């Protein structure tokens, strides 16, 4: 059973779409399995979670993690906009911008930085650093799970 279903963005009219081009999907892992260890034909490609705007590979289902007890969280920002986010241990497809700050942090004890798609620079979530660990909180409807 999937931990959550990622839906296409419903608010993409207001979201940034800086570039119209589309890159071929870069797999996060290139590990290949032999035919013998799986009956599935598509097993040479890992499931990937991609940017909803440009299809760049962002993270993978294997990187899901639970923070404060759950994988998914929903928060309002100071402007009253609700964000549904999912937590990941790694997200090689994003980069962070700005200094880490604890202002308005949604996770007590963690500082955050904005996390942007490396290809189209869409805002995909936040990178949180705590005293002993870190994680990415990524906005669910800005990602698509590709299988
Ligand atoms: Zn993108």
What does this structure look like?
- It is built from no helices and nine strands.
- The two termini are 14 Å apart.
- The strands form two sheets. The protein has a six-stranded antiparallel beta sheet with strand order 3-4-8-7-6-5, with no helix packed on it. A three-stranded antiparallel beta sheet has the order 2-1-9, with no helix packed on it.
- The chain is an all-beta fold and 147 residues long.
- The protein has strands at residues 48-51, 57-59, 72-76, 82-88, 94-101, 111-117, 123-129, 134-139, 143-146.
- It has a domain at 51-146: Metal Binding Protein, Guanine Nucleotide Exchange Factor, Chain A, CATH 2.170.150.20.
- It binds zinc ion.
- Zinc ion binds next to loops.
CATH topology of one domain: Metal Binding Protein, Guanine Nucleotide Exchange Factor, Chain A
CATH superfamily of one domain: Peptide methionine sulfoxide reductase
CATH architecture of one domain: Beta Complex
Structural class: mainly beta
Helix coverage percent: under 10%
Uncertain residue ranges: 5-44
Let me know the number of strands.
Answer: 9
One letter per element, helices H and strands E, the order comes to: EEEEEEEEE
CATH top-level class of one domain: Mainly Beta
Could you give the distance between the termini? Answer: 14 Å
Largest sheet: 6 strands, antiparallel
**What value does the average pLDDT take?**
79
**Strand content bin:** 25-35%
Small molecules bound in the structure, each named once? zinc ion
Using the alpha-carbon principal axes, give the shape: globular
- Figure out the total of helices: 0
Sheet with the most strands: spatial strand order: 3-4-8-7-6-5
